[in-house]
Write a structure and sequence with these properties.
Elements: H1 3-34, E1 40-45, E2 50-58, E3 62-67, E4 76-79, E5 83-87, H2 95-120
Antiparallel strand pairs: 1-2, 1-5, 2-3, 3-4
Amino acid sequence: MSLRSVVALALMFAFVGSAARAQDQNLWRSFAEKLPPGAFVVVRLSNGSTLKGHLVRVTSDTITVLPKTRLPVPARALAFADVESIGNPKEGMSPGAKVLATAGAAGGVVFGIFLAVVAASGGWD
């Protein structure tokens, strides 16, 4: 294969790759624009990192997300060029809510057993 052929193939693949990347950016931009402000999103970036948080704003070239962290942090503006994917899963219960629900259920079971023991022994004589 001649040097011109190799260079031509390399340029063709670079052009096709950049065109596909621009199409992906438009796809994610249109998806993000349809989400309401405050929606829970999971953004996967091209560097492999993932950001979970709430959507703040969408512009023509960035998406701004308020990260969901234990301690408050400022909102992050992410360029659509760096976005691999955007997901909109349902936000689950917080860890504190899970603990309270479990404690309430366990307390209800213990109280139910207590009432059954009292009723079986003949009441409160």
